[in-house]
Amino acid sequence: MLKTKITKLPKSEVEIEGELDAGIFESFYSPALKKIGEHVELPGFRKGKVPESVLISNLKEIQILEEMAELAISEYYPKVIAGETDSEKIDPIGHPNIAITKLARHNPLVFKIIVAVLPEVKLADYKKIAKKVLGDSKAETKEMSATDKEVDDTIADIRKSRAMKVHMAEHDHKEGEEHTHPEPELPEFNDEFVKGLGPFENVEDFKKKLKVNIKLEKENAEKEKTRLKIVEDVINQSTLEVPELLTNLEPDGA
To answer: What pTM value is reported for the model?
Structure first.
């Protein structure tokens, strides 16, 4: 049986304190000997073929214990982070820092593991933020209207655009030829002109509908501005604790 205690540390790290039952830890004795024996060479024996009794007499106990601990943690650490023991699930990043605090035959294996985890995002109260931003925006939108200057400027742009099109059509020439033409004369802004632009009865009708259109454009621009402001405020007021492991990473070639 493995007992664990998970403690959240600053900078998106967690500490896992683990205690593996003595009986379970002892079960790793033979596998540890076998693994060590695969790499041991002794006079009179082929590599990996040293009898267990001879191997034990030629090894320090700490060597076997350390191998036992490595095998035990390699088997149980994945179960711990997956939440398969008595611990909560963990999403680690990077390699764990392992420290053995108790290591002896016929005793529990006690260890501590510190590992960086995926940072936790603490999202700001987006409903509260949205309510405030929308309130401010509503007040601004309520006062929106098209000014006489904006109407006059738009009409001036339309007249210039129409004059330029007529000018280009009347003075069409082949590519490469140089021609000098006087500035196009702006068409007169009257009932006939606005009727050529669309379903308008007269100049007064055109200006009335133009004001409505300008106001709608302002309102749409304000809606987009408001949406971006909400997103910006939510991001700025949310917190993300980045693990030290990530802040210490250097870009390639550095």
So the answer is: 0.54
